[in-house]
Structures are given as C-alpha cells and as structure tokens.
Specification:
about 20% helix, 5 strands, 1 helix, about 80 residues, SH3 type barrels
C-alpha cells in the first residue's frame, strides 16, 4: 500500500525534474516531473516517489498535522514513510 505524504521540498535539481523533500525529519528523494516550477520550500504531496500536487502554506499546515495524527494513531513508523 502506498500513502500520499505531504512534504516540503528541500532540494530541487537544476533540471527541475528531481529533488528531495522532508516530513518530520525524514528526507526522501522525489521525482518532480509532474509538477510545474518546483522550488525549495514548496509543499507537495508525494505518492510512490512522485510529487503529484503543490499546495500553499496554510493548506500544508492542515495536511501535515492531519498526517501526523494519522501516523501516530495507526503506529506508522518513520522508516515506513
């Protein structure tokens, strides 16, 4: 099962097709080919290693808090994200 995870972009390659994103101290390499004009600091939804959607900081705060609550409630371990 794959989860769509809200994350913040921490690195964007010069070709804008790949980068890194972070959630609660967990950093993952991500494919950015599906979103327009990715920038460091953007909030994105990651699914199966691909950034599939960007969203604003207000929405990010809500999404990140909900995801934290879900992961804690079901006992999802950080290495599973």
């Amino acid at each position: 099962m794959c989860l769509a995870v809200p994350m913040k972009l921490t690195k964007v390659a010069s070709d804008k097709l790949s980068g890194s994103a972070e959630f609660d101290g967990i950093e993952r390499d991500v494919n950015l080919s599906l979103i327009e004009k990715p920038r460091v600091g953007d909030y994105v939804i990651i699914h199966a290693g691909f950034a599939i959607e960007k969203f604003n900081a207000k929405e990010a705060k809500i999404q990140l808090e909900l995801f934290r609550e879900i992961t804690e409630a079901v006992g999802l371990k950080k290495n599973m994200i």
